[in-house]
Design goal:
It holds the Pfam family 4HBT. This is Thioesterase domain-containing protein. It comes from Anaerococcus vaginalis ATCC 51170. InterPro entries: HotDog_dom_sf, Thioestr_dom. The chain is an alpha+beta fold. It has one domain (about 10-155): Roll (Thiol Ester Dehydrase, Chain A), CATH 3.10.129.10. The chain is about 15% helix and about 30% strand. It has one helix and six strands. A six-stranded antiparallel beta sheet has the order 1-2-4-5-6-3, covered by helices on one side. Strand 4 and strand 5 (about 130-140) form a beta hairpin. It is globular and about 45 Å long. The N and C termini lie far apart (about 40 Å).
Length: about 160
């Protein structure tokens, strides 16, 4: 039996939502951050090595605004995924997932995030409602937590 291709949540966004600079697959100049659900459906993970242009005031450390942007894109993708599976729906290449946007994002910077290192962001669902999801995230580099975030994400209305 052949393994199914893992697809990112961003690949399942509707056409009008695929142009985000951080995670949009159709933004030629974007970062193309990709978020992947775990097999147990309890976490969503993203990995990225940011370009050196995103350095902070200390050249060997990542700019804090970039960390917040990574949390923003990954958190809203995670919220969309958790809402989708909470409805009992399958997630596969035929999915057209609902879209979420950030209503609130709290970031706690724990340690400097080094440049030229792979960053992993792990998202977990805290709470899900009809239109809102609360997502907790950790950003790791070199196996250490560098930042944590809590997001309140809301479902996009059809007329947005």
């Amino acid at each position: 039996m052949k393994d199914a291709k893992k697809i990112s949540i961003q690949e399942t966004y509707g056409e009008r939502f695929q142009h985000c600079w951080g995670c949009g697959p159709k933004n030629d100049k974007g970062l193309h951050l990709k978020s992947f659900p775990s097999d147990d459906k309890k976490t969503v993970r993203a990995k990225i090595i940011p370009n050196e242009m995103y350095t902070g005031g200390v050249p060997q450390n990542l700019f804090g605004g970039m960390i917040a942007m990574i949390f923003d894109c990954h958190g809203t993708a995670s919220a969309a995924y958790f809402a989708h599976i909470n409805k009992g729906l399958e997630f596969d290449e035929n999915t057209l997932i609902g879209r979420f946007i950030t209503a609130r994002l709290e970031v706690d910077f724990k340690k400097p995030t080094p440049m030229n290192e792979e960053i992993e962001v792990i998202a977990k669902l805290e709470e899900i409602g009809e239109r809102k999801a609360i997502i907790n995230m950790e950003l790791l580099a070199k196996g250490e937590i560098r930042a944590k975030a809590k997001m309140v994400a809301v479902k996009v209305k059809d007329n947005m």
